[in-house]
Amino acid sequence: LAAHLQGGLPEADVDALQAYWEVFPQMRATLFGPGPREGYVDCKVAPEEVRSTILEHPEFKAFAKSALATFDTWWHAHESRLRNLSNDDEPKRVIYDLSEDLLNRFAEVPLLDKYDIYQLLMNYWAETMQDDVFVITQESWQEGAVVRELVKSKGSKSKESPDLVVGKKKYKMDLIPPELVVNRFFAEKKSALEELRAEWETATQELESFIEEHSGEEGLLEEATTDAGNVTKGSLSSRRKELKASPEFASDGELEAVQQCIKLMNREGEAKKKLSAAEEELDKVILPKYQRLTDDEIKDLLVRDKWFFAIRKGVDTEIDRVTQELAERLKVLEERYAEPLPVIECEIQNLMERVASQLAEMGVMTK
After folding, report:
1. In the chain, at which end, N or C, are there fewer CB atoms within 10 A of the end residue's CB?
2. What DSSP state is assigned to residue 144?
3. What letter does residue 308 receive in the DSSP assignment?
4. Model confidence over 283-314: pLDDT tens digits?
């Protein structure tokens, strides 16, 4: 009540977050300073800057680094076993050993709930890793590189979505998605492809912005718009032909706008054509690579590139959640005590006076 009446943020509310301050003792001083009176503090950081302040603080960076180091240590302890899975291994035993050790290691990590980390692993096991391990232990590592051509029965649709399309043929990779092969073996081609995609997206955005700016009623592209409300290459070409034949009927700058739109449309089409060609070229080299993968390469792709990074990404998300939760709790505190009652009353009085003044000007009431 005193905070609502006189301002300031109760120090007791900040103390209630002691679990965080035990890990980030200096961060508290970064976020809060002495208040207007004893037992109260003031916020030193604006609500919208709290999260970025936490993320950039050395203590949070040290915490995140330590938590990820715990995960990496756990992984390295089991990586050799995973890379040497064989027909002698029992999948249930594998996940039991992995999960129990993970649970024990994260019991010592503050702020992160060990059972949340444990559940990350178990969810990934149920959704993906379990099937992979069963294939390896019941068949072989080479099964990881098997590519299935999706052949639909006559008159029916395939229920599976393809991972790769080469020509008219569609393929499915059950264990190793094509993007993992691309990332590991065709990084340069991927980089070039991303540059072409960026060029196409830029060209598309410029075209859409130009059309949006000049189409519509009384826009320079109004007459080049189809009955369906679209600006097409055909409608632009037709309008350009009309304008050149009868320039006296053109609006100022209309011909230039039509020609510029055609130029942007050609640029977008050419960028899309280059992107499609690069995608087709990449798809053609991916398929043969699966047939040449060695056991060690398959292990790298599955154990390191697929399993490790997927689970580690989940841990990263949990670490980020710590930031989000602390930022949200601090934001609530700041907003709760942002305006004491006298300030609110003053604002209400000012608003009432403004309304009364406006009503008086309208002749509804006297001042």
Report:
1. N
2. G
3. I
4. 989 999 998 999 999 999 999 999 999 999 99
- SS3 per residue for 179-225: HHHHHHHCHHHHHHHHHHHHHHHHHHHHHHHHHHHHCCCCCCCHHHE
Distance CA 89, CA 91 (A): 6
Neighbouring-strand partners of residue 170: 165
Q: For residue range 161-195, what is the model confidence (pLDDT) as tens digits?
A: 888 888 888 899 989 999 999 999 999 999 999 99
Global pTM value: 0.78
For 311-325, how does the pLDDT look when each residue is reduced to its tens digit (9 = 90+)? Answer: 999 999 999 999 899
pLDDT, tens digit, 9 for 90 and up, residues 197-230: 999 999 999 999 999 999 888 888 888 888 888 9
> What is the phi/psi pair of residue 34, to 5°?
-55, 140
How many angstroms separate the CA atoms of 199 and 204, rounded? 9
Amino acid at 206: E
Q: Does 249 have pLDDT greater than 90?
A: no
Is 85:94 a contact under the CB 8 Å cutoff? yes
Instruction: Please check whether residue 255 is in contact with residue 247, taking contact to mean a CB–CB distance below 8 angstroms.
Output: yes
User: In whole numbers, what is the pLDDT of the chain averaged over residues?
Assistant: 86
Question: Any idea what the Cα angle at residue 301 is, between residues 84 and 128, rounded to 5°?
Answer: 85
What is the CB-side half-sphere exposure of residue 211 using CA atoms within 13 A? 22
Per-residue exposure over 25-59, b if at least 16 CB sit within 10 Å of its own CB, e if not: eebbebbbeebeeeebbebebebeebbebbeebeb
